[in-house]
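Entry for the shared binder. Reason: the reviewer on the internal report wants the predicted structure included alongside the sequence.
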Amino acid sequence: MNEAKLLERITIDPKIFGGKPIVRGRRLAVEHVLGMLAAGDTADTILSGYSWLELEDIQACLLYARQLVSHERVEPFFIKPPS
């Protein structure tokens, strides 16, 4: 599945979680999926907890996050060396 098709799985509904990105219009926030992955849950574990969820939904969450951070601008900061 190409990136554009994957990203169609991520939707925003102002009535659900205050407009945070969600998976296919359901009450599952992208940030929740990312949090589970960050905590060490495997895709299989997440899929077993949500019968309607598909592997492509998890991939879409990761792609969405990657696209967000790819647009971040990092300003270098300078640390004063110790005297």
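Summary line for the report: The CA atoms of residues 1 and 82 lie 52 Å apart.
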